[in-house]
Design brief:
- The chain is an all-alpha fold.
- Helix content is 71%, strand content 0%.
- It contains 14 helices and no strands.
- Helix 10 packs parallel to helix 12.
- The radius of gyration is 21 Å and the shape is elongated.
- The protein starts with a helix and ends with a helix.
């Protein structure tokens, strides 16, 4: 699409046309795309705003960062907040404290999972421990399970002892899925308590949990 066509599409009353315009901006120079993307940050359709967040992740400027931060913090739709969080994470260490704060304030499961995934890939054990502790204390089971996985990533870091103390009480959880995740996480720790807990879980009443300890030892 030519720039004039993109501009016309972005002004259309048809959300599909606006979406087409936002998508076309991916092929444009950042200096051209940025102001047009920013003009759609508050579009009435959540899908358009989500694609705006995706587009902004390719533009590593202060303006793009500020727009994504605003979307992550204040957009009314969790899909948009989640997409903004994912895009914000592409800015690296500059985004870490903002992602942690968003995790603390926003208890939507999709937003939280969108923050967990990129932080797990960064070298930021303090931040990972903080969001995992918050997630584990929440009521959403998938987030709790993801938090357990995160604690497992903290083996051999300066947060390993604190992570271990979060994991050990969960060996007696009533939820087999939680126990399974705990078995996998604990297997990553070179620690007598962790090894004893894994041995205990190897005899779990649920064969899936017991099987997870065997898989982890392979």
């Amino acid at each position: 699409m030519e720039i004039s066509e993109i501009q016309a599409a972005l002004q259309s009353s048809d959300s599909q046309e606006r979406l087409r315009g936002v998508t076309a901006l991916r092929k444009c120079d950042s200096a051209v795309a940025l102001p047009m993307l920013l003009s759609k940050v508050d579009d009435r359709e959540f899908m358009v705003r989500s694609f705006v967040a995706m587009g902004l992740r390719q533009i590593q400027t202060a303006e793009a960062f500020a727009a994504l931060l605003k979307m992550m913090q204040f957009d009314r739709d969790p899909n948009v907040r989640a997409e903004a969080a994912n895009s914000l994470s592409r800015f690296g260490t500059e985004a870490i404290s903002h992602l942690v704060e968003a995790f603390r304030r926003d208890d939507n499961w999709l937003v939280r999972r969108s923050i967990m995934a990129p932080l797990y890939e960064m070298q930021c054990p303090d931040a990972v421990f903080e969001i995992c502790a918050i997630g584990l204390g929440g009521e959403d089971v998938p987030v709790q399970e993801a938090a357990i996985d995160g604690f497992g990533l903290l083996a051999n870091t300066q947060k390993q002892e604190e992570a271990l103390q979060q994991l050990l009480p969960l060996v007696s959880s009533d939820n087999w899925g939680i126990r399974l995740r705990v078995a996998r996480a604990l297997s990553k720790f070179d620690n007598p308590q962790a090894r004893a807990a894994v041995t205990y879980l190897a005899k779990d009443r649920d064969h899936r949990v017991a099987g997870a300890t065997l898989e982890a030892s392979l």
